[in-house]
Every structure is written in C-alpha cells, then in structure tokens.
Model the fold of this input.
Amino acid sequence: MHPRFEETAAILEARFAEGSAVPWTDDAFGSHAFAVFVVQYESCSVYRSLCDARGITPANLAAWTDIPAVPATAFKYFDFIDDGAGAPEATFRTSGTTRGDEARGRHLVPRLSLYRAALLAPLRAALMPDRGRARFISLIPNPVEVPDSSLSYMVGAAADTLAGGIDWLVDAAGAWSSETEAVCRRAAATGEPVVLLGTALAFQHAIERAARGEPSLGRLPDGSRVMETGGFKGATRHVSRDELHGGITSLTGIPAERIVNEYGMTELLSQLWEPVLVEGLAGRGVHRPAPWLRVRALDPVTLHPVPEGRDGILCFFDLANLGSVAHVLTEDVGSVVDGRVRLRGRAPGAEPRGCSRAMDELMSAAGQP
Amino acid sequence: MRRLGPGGQGVGAREASAGDVREACARLRAAGPELIRRSTDDIAGVLGVVGVRFLDSDDPLRREALERLPHESGLSPRMASEVLEGMASDWSAERLRRMLRAEFGDPRCLDRPTELNGRRLMAHGPGLCVQIVSGSVPGVGVHALLRSLLVKAPTLIKPGRGDELLTELFAQGLGEVDSGLAGALAVLRWRGGSEAIEREAMTAADVAIVYGSDATVGALRAMAPATTRVVGYHHRTGVALVGRDSEPDRAASDLARSVAFFDQRGCVCPHRTWVETGGPLDAMDFAARVAQAMAHLESSLPAAPLSPEEASALQQLRGTAELRAGASGGRVWHGGAAAPWTVIFEPDPVPGPTTLARGVRVHALQDLEVAGEALAPLGEHLQTVGYAGFGARLDRLMEIAGRSGASRVVPLRAMSFPPPWWLHDGRGPLLELVRWVEVEAER
Done:
C-alpha cells in the first residue's frame, strides 16, 4: 500500500467519528481531498494515467474540484485500487441496470473500517437522532449471504453498533422468512420502536404480499421508523413514492414523517440521507451528504458547475473512497442547494436512439476487470 | 437542463386508442379489393409520383418536410436535408420497380398467374399488414409502407418516434394524388409499448412487421396469434473493415461520414472499425485521420445538440475511454463540449460503454483471415459491414462477414443508405410479405 494510506485513513476515520452534524469548512475538506488525491494519484496507475492525460498532478493542483473525476461507468471496466494492494477486504458489486446484459461494476475496498466509520454517524443522525439503540428489522439480505452488496454490509455494520438485535426477513434469493409475521408481532408486543430497513422494491413486495393475503409486515410500535432506499432499477414495477409510502404506512402504521430515504451507490462509500426525522416533512425530497462527501451538479456538456438549484449531472467527491477513487461522475440528475441534493432521478445510459444496437453490451459479455 | 431531440416532438399530435386501431383495421380491410384490382406497376407509379415530390425543391411537401424535420427528428438542419435527399431518392417509381424486379423477377406475378422458372405462380399480399416501427431514423416509416403497398397490402403503420413527420407527409401526399390508394394506408401514432393498442394491432394483422429492440420485437411477437406471420427487425449494428490496400485519407473520410450520418442512430452506422495491419496502414494513424475527418464534418454535416441524457452518457464513454487509453496504450480524440464526435483507438477490442452520437472505436486487425473472430461476439446483431481496400479479396471478405452474421457488405461510403432492394437483415423484404400460390396443371 501507499506509505501514506494508513495514516490518511486513520485521520479520516477519526474525523468521521466526530459525527456528521457539523459541516466541514471548505479549507478542511480541501486539505483532506488533497491528501486523498496524493495517495490515489501515486498508488493507482490507471487513475494516474487519466490525471496525467489531463495535466493534473498533485504538484499543480489548484482546487479539489480540479481533481479528475472518473465516470461511474468505469467501475465496470477497471479496478481502482492501489497497484500494490493485496487482496481487498471486500469487493462490492453494482446491481446492474434495466438492460441486464451489461457488465456489473465493482468496487474494491482495501479497508472496511473506513467504510464503517463513514456510514455510522450519518445513519445514526438520519434514523436514530432520538435513540441510542433500537431493534432492526431488515428486508435487505444479511451480508453473510450477500458479501458483495455494499448495502447489506451497511445494514450489518450499523446493526452491530446501533441495534439491539436484528431480524433478517428476506434472503438473498428474495424469499421471505416464515418468521415475518411473528417478528412484527413480537416487536409490537415490546412496544419498543424499531428501525425497519429495506429497498423500495422490497417494500413494494411486502405491500403486494399483504394484498394477496400472504404473510407480510405487520403493525410496528409507535416511534418506529423506516429506511427506504433505491428505486426500481431493473424492476418491472413503478409506483410513485407517495403510493409506496402510503402502502408502508398502512402495513406498519409508520407515518410518512418517519420514512427516511437513503441515497447511495456501490461506487461511493458515503451516503446521503433525507433529514426527515430531524426536520420533519420539510426535509423530504432533499438529501444531505455526510460532511466528507461533496456533491456538485454539472452541465452534462461542458462539465462546468450549474447554478445552485439548477439540474445537472451529479459529481461526488467522497473522502471515504480513499482506497479507490474519490471523485466520481455519475449519470444521476439533480440539483444542489446549500450542499444538499434534490434528486431528479437516474438517467442511465440514454438508450441509444434509432435502430442501432448498443453493440458494446455484446462485447461486454466477458467484461469484468 | 434542456431536453432536446426526439421525445419533445409530436406534442399535441393525437395518440391513437385501441378503438382507433380497430376502426382503422376494419376500414383498411375494406380497401383491399380496390388495391387488388390495381396493377403493381400502376401502384409503383403512383407511389413514385409522391416519392419524388420530396426531391423537388419547389414542392410544398418537401418544403414542409425540410422545415419541420430538424425539430421533429432531432437532427441538424443540414443533416436532416441530407437524410431526406438520401431516403427520398429511393422512393421514385424507377427504384420501386427495380425492387419489385429484384425480388419477384416478373412482378406481374402479383397481378395474375405467371410463369416463373417453369412454375405457374401467383403472389398475394396480406389482407392487412400492420407495421410497428420504432427508432428515430427519418424515412424508415416510408420505406416500410412502400413495401407493403407494393404487394397490395392495406397497411396500418405506426412510425417510430421522430419519424412520424415523413410518414405522415407521405400519406398526405398520397391522398392528394390517389385517394383509392391512400384509403389503403393509415398512419397512427401511439406510444411504443402501449400494450392494449399493440395487442389490438397484432391481433388484427395478417402479417405484422415489427421494428425495435430485441425486447420490443419479442414482446410484440408474443402478442400475435399463431396464424399471423410476424417479421421482426430487431436491433442491429454496423462495423467497418479497412483493408491494407486502402487509401487512408479517403477511407477515413468515408468512414467518418458513415459514422456521422443519422448521428449514428442507424443499424447501418459503424460503431467499431478494424484496420488491417501488416502493410502500410497503421491503425492508430488511421484513427487520427478519422478524428480529423470527424472534426471537419462538423462544419459540413453538423451534429444535433444532445439531450442531457445523451450528453451524460457521452461523458461516461469519453472518461472511460481515456482511462482505457492510459492503461493500455490507446488514444482518444473528441470534439469536447463543442461537438459530440469521439474516436477511440484501442489496439484490441475491449469491453466499454456503447459509442453514441458519432463515436467509433478503431482496432487493429492482423489480417482479414482473422476478422471472423473479431466479429463473432456481435453474432445475430451484426448487419452492415462497410469496407475499403480489400481489392481482389472482396469475395473472401463477403464470406467471412456473412459467416459472422452480416447481411450487407458495402463500401464505407455507401453504408448509410441501402437501396430499396437490399436484403434487409438477410431477406427480401417484399418476399417476406407475400404468400405464394402455385397451380399444377392436369396431365
């Protein structure tokens, strides 16, 4: 590993542990970003060659925003990791897209403690601002079953620290536990609020199961809250958010003001959260990044930042990505106001117009790095 | 962000309902007998009269087409004009008659029993042909309706999004010259994937022609009764092979033109190019020349502005290509924020995001004899192979390309506009539509 990796990681972990409530100054963020860039530039030859081609090196860097961003798509084709790193502690894979036949991206993580440090404080602030511990009920599969899911890892790691026990209700194949109803009944009997975590798709399944009279989620104690994440990528269902939340409320009794959306992606180890538990429904529709994650909305043609409040493609600089690459240009569309993001949606891949086949999907059949 | 290109157009144009489709199908079927009474030659003549109106600069049809096409198709005005020119030059009676001869030998077999190769045969078009076209290449809809009308099939057509204008103008023009023939044609709009409407159409058809992605074609096919003939034109792609005897500047300029045409939306547009090495040609040098030609074309044949989604996809493509270039000795040239063209030299083909909006990958090829391996992954999606510089090895090229799935092997410059009689995806498009009847005499 790069000689400065451990030291930089330790400094960042310590800062992440201070919590996510207080924003970082531009100077503080910038100096950490520079340290991260030095490590990544010097240790990852694929990334270095891009920086060299663009004429940006640690020696001439003026601002962190000038650090070359890699396209999120590139995670499908390259491993961004220290050339001298041994086996990573984890390999997370993206879930693929609606087109299905593409290569999946992967994110190699040399040091999971940095991920844990990055995920904990924002998750606690978003889901448990008022509680030290709570029981977790997860519709996201157990990381033991799905070791390549960064989302499963997040839930597992959060549960290890913040949960007074966790029930995993859905397995890796999407099958529901026969204990589902009993788990909800037991939780209801204790009267202690729980944290219910799942993808939008899993919640939709729960709602449909209940409608068919199959065992599904039941009422949960007052004060319980929901983490809902992800859209319907790759799925055949599309329901509006209000419909989905209405369904969750009628199943569990958890009202909309305690349903929190999480926005994350495999390529980034930090997440963004809707601050609804703190700010009420005013916090709906905006996502707050951790202080160590900065987001810019860029013009898709020029890549210049668009004015505050205007839609652009989102570009992230995530210090928690120290072990891979911190600056990532996505295809997600949204606007940024005061550091917070209003997501417009995901516009991946602009289906090719016309009758031309997206031929490179064909070439990608064996396309893992 | 601004939203440009197809998708915005047609706002306000009425979308058909399943009831509209049902009604149109009944009306079209009733128009069948009138169509059958006409001779094929006469029909070709009338269609040609309408077709050439799109080439006559004084004709209001052409003027309207040129005025509205850039907006409705999302192509630059210059490109839209070239596309119209290229497409409509195949809509003349002479070209249509040549297509009929190419497929039937003696097209009178569509009018009456005819002696063909010692057999007594007659060809019948379907009582109702439904054409569901997708894709935004302008003119494809007109080509499609010409085919079915030529075999005397009353035709319901749903043009692709961005291709409504020419299809509708053609129908309008037909109405102006021949109301009988126009009564056998209905152009309806609906949003592709509208299941109730498409089921209605697929159920009503005797023969259905469907264009679209593999998924679209599959879904439509599944809607048709077992007795309905469904011809699917699924997604395809083009490639270019540049032989070692090419004149590099000319080949690069021809290739650039074929990449740029339709802003690379066509299945005839090349996405990857293999340059045969082992002679005077250097693949990277060739790629540089293509880049130069692409830049040059921006002034004579400008690209349309990209939608935000396309612009975003292009950033992913370019960024990934730059990473690849650094990692494995390739190179990337592109038009920056000013122009969407992108030329990527990668010595060997490697997976990467799809090129779009005038993007092409250039690879080295040791020898034509190993081209089959390079093309193999494209399989059933390969369609057009553009070439230059194979001299006496042309038959060999055809054999190899054909084995790899191609159905069309043409000079680089000719890739964009296949003639009406081309073997669309390997089959005669008119023959696909008809049913033959043979009579055997008593002896």
Observations:
- The two ends of chain B are 76 Å apart (CA to CA).
- Chain B has a mean pLDDT of 93.
